[in-house]
Amino acid sequence: MFFYRQWKVIPRRLYDRILLDNMDIDATERNNILKLQSLVHNQISSPTFTSMIKYAWFKAGYVDTHPGPFKTVTEICFDFDDLECHIRNCTLCSLIRCSHCGYVLCIEHFFNNYHFH
What we know:
Elements: H1 3-7, H2 9-20, H3 30-44, H4 50-59, H5 73-77, E1 96-97, E2 104-105, H6 107-112
Antiparallel strand pairs: 1-2
């Protein structure tokens, strides 16, 4: 009921960036789809999303206790002020904040270099 709406935020942002910046990445290629879904699973598996996932179970009626306040994928991964990637000597525009380490990363360091925890 709530979970997959959150799951789709990261791929949408990545696809939008690819289109807006006219990047040479084939987002429809099988390996890139699998890579992206793996990265999304890795990001949402972060302990920072535990309450959000519990809320999805609560919203669906599987549990009776509300998990309390939580932050969404947009608030954790995309609400930042840094314009440049945190990787040394990288001047590319930022795309996402890693939910595990907190680094703000460009598409090169997040997707192409497979930023996995």
